[in-house]
Design a protein that fits this description.
The protein is mainly alpha-helical. It has one domain. Helix content is about 75%, strand content about 0%. The protein has twelve helices and no strands. The termini are far apart. The mean pLDDT is about 90.
Length: about 260
């Protein structure tokens, strides 16, 4: 049990700025097994954002509450995945071959493509969450936040199983967290990634909307796999962050689908 806690806290430390116990050490083996808990960290981040949204909504308009909840998740993660989205869009938008794409991704400066991508992602996220709050109970928005953060991290974590890491040591920002996931580790990630869907169903969300949300996340995963294979021959950390962001948006948009 202590070993599993170390893996979880290693994942929490890697993906967020939330504090972890002092007894949690550092080792490459620990980091290599932490990816199984990326989706559980997603649940934690979603609860942070959902909790702030719910509390703020008690005294403030829903639009401000949603913005504060989004800000809470950004503070909790240090905009880790948003940075990956920005770097990836800059790289693929400005580069035409593998080495140039990786070189642009490495650049810490935000280009016009990256700035536009972050702006559009945040605006879309706000619009979707605000619309969810307007259409349903606040509890549904909270559950959607948890589900969105968990499922989207399952999408990015799945790429660890489907692709190889792009080994360009002179261009890489850091070593990857995990080279590959075993079947058992992926099943652990899938359990935590899909578990929040039960809360949406329990709250009365149309099962068809839940299925569309899940289908969009799967589509983002498979689309990212194909695109990255074609242009890079594998994944980078930035690409995982971009996949998470797009999949999260897909979950929220899917939950807003209308059925006659």
């Amino acid at each position: 049990m202590k070993l599993q806690l170390e893996y979880f806290f290693a994942a929490l430390r890697f993906l967020t700025r939330l504090p972890v116990p002092a007894w949690v050490g550092h080792s490459s083996e620990q980091l290599n097994h932490a990816a199984r808990y990326f989706t559980l960290v997603g649940i934690v981040v979603g609860l942070v954002g959902g909790g702030v949204t719910w509390l703020a909504a008690q005294v403030l308009p829903a639009s401000i509450a949603v913005l504060l909840g989004m800000a809470a998740t950004l503070l909790a993660t240090g905009a880790f995945h948003e940075d990956g989205l920005s770097d990836s869009v800059d790289g693929f938008g400005g580069g035409w071959e593998k080495l140039r794409i990786l070189e642009i991704m490495k650049d810490s400066r935000v280009g016009s493509f990256g700035a536009i991508a972050i702006a559009m992602a945040l605006l879309t996220k706000f619009a979707a969450l605000h619309e969810l709050t307007r259409q349903a109970q606040l509890s549904v928005t909270v559950a959607a936040l948890v589900a969105g953060h968990a499922i989207s991290r399952l999408a990015s974590t799945s790429l660890l199983c489907l692709l190889d890491y792009v080994r360009e040591d002179e261009l890489a920002k850091s070593k990857p967290l995990a080279r590959k996931l075993s079947v058992g580790e992926w099943l652990c990630a899938a359990f935590f990634g899909l578990a929040p869907l039960a809360a949406l169903l329990w709250l009365g969300v149309d099962y068809r909307k839940v299925l569309v949300a899940l289908a969009l996340a799967v589509a983002v995963t498979l689309g990212a796999k194909r695109y990255l294979e074609r242009h890079l021959g594998g994944y980078t950390g930035d690409c995982l962050g971009a996949t998470q962001q797009i999949a999260e948006l897909g979950v929220y948009i899917g939950l807003l689908c209308r059925f006659s």
